[in-house]
Amino acid sequence: MAQVENSSIAVQATFVAAMLASEPAKWRTQLTRLAPLLGIELFKATQAQIARLAQLAPASRLPLLVDLLTLLDGVEPADRKRLRAVARAFAPTVATGDMLRFSLTRVIEARLSKAGEPSTPVPLPERAAAVCELYAALAQCRFGAGKQGQNAYRAGVMGMLIPAKWAPYPEQLIAPAALDVALAAVAQIHPTGKRSLSEGMARVIAVGGRMTVPQVDLLRGACLIVDCSMPLIPIDVVFEEADVMAPKSQASAR
């Protein structure tokens, strides 16, 4: 971590490495295609960071990257533009359910783009459809397609929205493009409503006492994108065991 923080190139390389596919054959192809944009120094630094990221447990990756976000403020304008271009190139290619890369590409774009004119905040019920979409996506991150996540979804909206405002729970997985639309709408909610939004996300995740890394990656990413606080997750809610183990074999495969 300290090695990364002390080098602007290493910071950029860590973000690029995290956006690459996890499979060696795929990330090598992606990195080769990016080479003209990255330049030799960033290209080599990215190769080094791929191995380091692979050694981290899945649950630790996005928190590390979020901690590095503020360091992007000190990066040279040309380098910021380059990193934003990489994030924009990856954003449409993110697979449904890949919440690490979904959150990362969107958070980088939000951090590096110029701030636009703030919109007039609206009450949470006026963005009920978008809130329901976000909560359903969170539930699907654990329960997958079908109706299994319906109770978790309902735990989020119950007591916050009147039943007439509840959207039907979707059985098909929510695509990244639809989630982008939902987050853009949710970002317009008044700060008071965002507190309720944040608490509702925690309720969705807490159902069943188990959470997954994609759930928490989406939670973390959504809070950064819409500018609301991270909620407290009850201490008795734990990660699935596989999600907190460092992938030793994957690290060696790279």
Structure summarized in a few sentences:
By secondary structure, this protein is an all-alpha fold. It contains 12 helices and 2 strands.
Structure description:
Strands 1-2 form a two-stranded parallel ribbon. The longest helix has 31 residues, at 24-54. Helix 2 (8-19) runs parallel beside helix 5 and helix 7 runs antiparallel to helix 11. It has 254 residues and is mainly alpha-helical. The protein has helices at 2-5, 8-19, 24-54, 58-68, 77-90, 99-112, 128-143, 150-157, 176-186, 191-206, 213-226, 248-253, and strands at 210-211, 238-239.
Task: Quickly list its features.
254 residues, mainly alpha, two-stranded parallel sheet, 62% helix, disordered C terminus
**Rg over CA atoms:** 18 Å
Uncertain residue segments: 248-254
Order of helices and strands: HHHHHHHHHHEHEH
| Class based on secondary structure composition and strand pairing | mainly alpha
Approximate shape: globular
Cα(first) to Cα(last) distance is 20 Å
Major sheet summary line: 2 strands, parallel
What is the number of strand segments? 2
Approximate helicity band: 55-70%
> What is the residue-averaged pLDDT?
91
Number of helices: 12
Q: Please state how the strands of the largest beta sheet are arranged side by side.
A: 1-2
Kindly estimate the percentage of residues that lie in beta strands according to DSSP.
Answer: under 5%
